[in-house]
Design brief:
The chain has 15 helices and nine strands. The protein is an alpha/beta fold. Strands 1, 2, 3, 4, 5, 6, 7, 8 and 9 form a nine-stranded mixed sheet that branches.
Length: about 350
Amino acid sequence: MEEGKKAEEGGWKKAAVAVDGEDGFAQDLVGGRGFVVNIISLWGIYIRRTFTAAGLSSQAIHIDDETTIHFWGPKSPDPTDPKPPLVLLHGFGPDTHWQWHPQVAFFAREFALYIPNLVFFGDSTTKSAERSEMFQAVSVGKLMEKLGVKRYYVVGTSYGGYVAYHMAAMWPERVEKVVIASSAVNWKQRDNEEFLEKRAKAGSRDELLLPETAAQLRGLLATMIHRGSHGYMPDFLLNDVVLNMYSKNRKMKIELLDGLHVGKHNTVNISPLHQDVFLVWGEHDQLFPLEKATELMELLGEKTKLEVIKNTGHAPQIEKPVQFNKIVYKLLVGYSSPPRDCNGGKKLQ
């Protein structure tokens, strides 16, 4: 009986690590059944505290008469110690703090971070009928304009990569460099059909990306994360994840998926970008296979580079955060890691 209990608890710990990547906080919290039930709420509190510890605060701005954007940004920017602004755009899934927490402490040392929730994620909302990725790009652009930030770097992952591409295309004078991670802006209609038929661990797009049950969440994790074993993940833990991360604004998020221009046709209309463009991809991405990255590199022009993270799936910023952070940092500033003393920012070149 005791051995069975230890094995079950060991399974919960592996499950927590499978969700949390390399950070290990969730593993530290797992100690017994009653405690695990509340792990997602506790973990969320911890993550928000890591954002505040990095000098960020939770803010919301009405960017126009219809749309409000919630974001994490500098508490009190110091004009005597400027840091280059960096915008992080999340993928289609949990709110932004869940997706970017392994990056915050690392990048906050040398960048002024702006981490918005895209419309209908977190507390960002709109009365507009627009639902496209271009609308999301315009909304983030308006946010930065309202904040008085004139030039910045942009990093977008998956759905956020679509938004990052359009921001760079619309405002080459504002977006200095752009990183598109795990995001096939060149996705075609037939790619959607092939993915759902051959690789998706789900019966439909909505079931995969907006799971409502523990079984559907297992399918999402199996599709998105490259691991030999996810460990045992009890239903009550997965249901808590679904409740806390996927239930809010579900109807509107389905509308966002329906409103995507990417993947609507079998022809791709992509203009090369004028900026330095960096693609970061997981070697074993099942959603957007690596060949889409090599194709996209050719379409985006001669200033585009591709970095592949080995033994990683669709979420390298979660699965391999240390490696992801170092790669992105090097691509943006030209050397591999921040100095220990990060006083004094770097101006955008």
